[in-house]
Structure formats: C-alpha cells, structure tokens
Amino acid sequence: MDQVAIVILNYNGRSFLSQFLPSVLSCSDGCPVYVADNHSTDDSVALLQAQFPEVRLIRLPVNLGYAGGYNAALKQIRATYYVLLNSDVEVTPDWIGPLRAFMEAHPEVAACQPKIRAFPAPGYFEYAGAAGGYIDYLGYPFCRGRLFDTIEEDRGQFDDAREVFWATGACMLVRSEVFHRLGGFDPRFFAHMEEIDWCWRVKNAGYQVWYCPDSVVYHVGGGTLPKSNPNKTLLNYRNSLAMLYKNLPTRNVFLNILIRLVLDGFSGMRLLAGGHWRDVLAILKAHYAFYSWLPYLRRQRNALADLRNNRIVHRQIYPRSIVWQYFVKGRKTFDELDGNH
C-alpha cells in the first residue's frame, strides 16, 4: 500500500492537465499520481494515454461530480493518505513533504491543506482556500485571506500553522481511513461545499483540520464552473442549507436555518437589483431542492446524531454573522473581524 497517493479528478480538463500535470509529476516526491476521469467528452483520456503514461488512469462510467467522483475513485486506491488535487493547480517543489510530515506527527489531524495562492496573481491568496477555511454560525464560509470577494495580498500575515474549520477541496491531504469511515463526501452535493460538510463531520468525530503554510500551491480557480455561473449559485445555496441541516446541533438548527433563508432572500433582491435574474432563479431552485431533500437530510441528520451531539462547539465556527461584519461594519479582512480568533 502506498503512503501517499495524489488523486486528480478530471472533467473535460484537457488544457489544465496539459499545463499542470508536468509540475505535479516532477514534484510528486515519488508518490503515484492518479487521474480519475469523470466521463469527459473532450480528449482528456487520449492526452493522458499518449503523453502521460506514468499516470494511473481511473475511468468513471458517468459524471458523478466532485463528490461522487472522488468517492468512486478513492474506493479503488489503497494508500495511507490521499492528496485531493484539482486539475488547475500548479504545485511547487517539496509541497507534499510538509503536509505528510505534519500528518505523521499529529495523529489527531484528519486533513490539512497548504497555502493556496492565486495562479493569475501569485502574490495574492486564492478564493477557494487561501490560508484555511472558517464558517460562521449561519453557514457562510470564508477564509483567512479571503472574505467574500476581498482577496488579501500574501505579506506573511498567515504564515502560522493553525487549526481551521475546513480544508479546501482544491488541494488537501486526508487520512484515507477517516475519509472512508465517515462516509466520504455526500454524493447528493455533486459539487461545492462537499469538503466543508465532510470536514464538519471530521470535527464532530473529534479530529482536527489544519492549515500548513510551509507547503504552497497555485490555483487557477473556476476551472469547471466560472464564478458567475448560475449553476454554481444553485449548488452553493442548496448545499449550504443541506450542510447546516445535517450538522448543526439541535438547539440551533431551526433558528439558524430560518435566519439563513431570510438572508438568502435579501441576497436574491440584491442580485435582482443588479440585473442578475438568472442567479435569482438559481436561488429559488436551490430552496426548492432543499425542501425536496428534507426526507433524505432527516435520515442523514439522524445517522449523524451521536457525532453531532458529542461535539457541538468548535472554535473555528465564527459566532457572529460574517455578512453583517463585511457588508454592514465594513470588515474586509480576517484580522479586522470582531472577535477574531
């Protein structure tokens, strides 16, 4: 069994594979590199077979999304640790070493992520991970180095390793045994928020998630769905509500979701005022999907009851509203937040 397996999930990402696979292979520190192809319709598979024969190819029969795709692929790979890596990530020399060493030294940690910088602007953090993920009590995720659309320049202000609430699915190292024992990603999420949902289960199970700044990678971001895509809006709003319902402690769940639904309404009005009617429609579809999922989510919530009730307080859940902090109080960076950890 390998100690570390690098696993890239691909869907119609031929250009990214061509551009970024060489850096992964040259900096993989001897670890096997897998590409799990999510039934691409471009010539990704032909490219891999012709130009990257050293890559271990897993071909999935249908597009299962990020969540289902990784679940299916990782069942076929035996390793102590998995590195889940997006196809649009450029890695750096010895990026695996610090992550692996940290996990070896800390058995209580189930997942960790490197520092994520933006490939188009290398001096800045990247939206989908930055210097480690947090979440507020209403389910809005944010990062050290990124609050909503405000991206901070990396000036060394987040060069300390620390426990966070979630690690980014763009690049994270996970313990395979914990990943499978906690059920992997929720396949209904398809894409977006599935890593936060999984990390919440990890935290409730008593494990930790960490950010390790000694490892650095560069992420393009928005490779499969651009930031403005209404389908991304639907996935984010739907999956965020589902994640809250599954994981919040009983005393908080209904009030917090009610507040979140109201805030989603305000968000929809703001988008409508800006002429983004397709995103408004996506929010409405997300709410409808959430309600239609309730029987499934109720079963999920009941199955997670023991974990959830054992671990109901996490310091990395921000006890204030990040929406209020950012849009009303004008707190645009992590260090400006009231009650910052």
Task: Walk me through the structure.
This protein is an alpha/beta fold and 341 residues long. The protein has two domains: 2-219, Spore Coat Polysaccharide Biosynthesis Protein SpsA, Chain A (Alpha-Beta Complex); 230-310. It has helices spanning 14-26, 44-51, 65-74, 96-105, 176-181, 194-204, 230-247, 250-273, 277-303, 305-310, 322-328, and strands spanning 2-10, 33-37, 56-59, 79-86, 89-91, 109-118, 133-136, 141-143, 146-147, 150-151, 162-164, 171-175, 208-219, 317-318. The longest helix is centred in the C-terminal third of the chain and has 27 residues, at 277-303. The model has no long low-confidence stretch (mean pLDDT 93).
Total of DSSP H or I helical runs spanning 4+ residues: 11
Structural class: alpha/beta
| CATH class identity of the largest domain | Alpha Beta
Number of domains: 2
Helix proportion range: 40-55%
CATH topology of the largest domain: Spore Coat Polysaccharide Biosynthesis Protein SpsA, Chain A
Subunit organisation of the chains: single chain
Task: Spell the H/E element sequence.
Answer: EHEHEHEEHEEEEEEEHHEHHHHEH
Beta content comes to 15-25%
End-to-end C-alpha gap: 39 Å
Radius of gyration: 19 Å
The CATH level-2 architecture of the largest domain is identified as Alpha-Beta Complex
- Describe the largest sheet: 9 strands, mixed
Annotated CATH homologous superfamily of the largest domain: Spore Coat Polysaccharide Biosynthesis Protein SpsA, Chain A
Report low-confidence residues grouped into runs of 5 or more.
none
What is the 3D form?
globular
Instruction: Give the overall average pLDDT.
Output: 93
Query: What is the β-strand count?
Result: 14
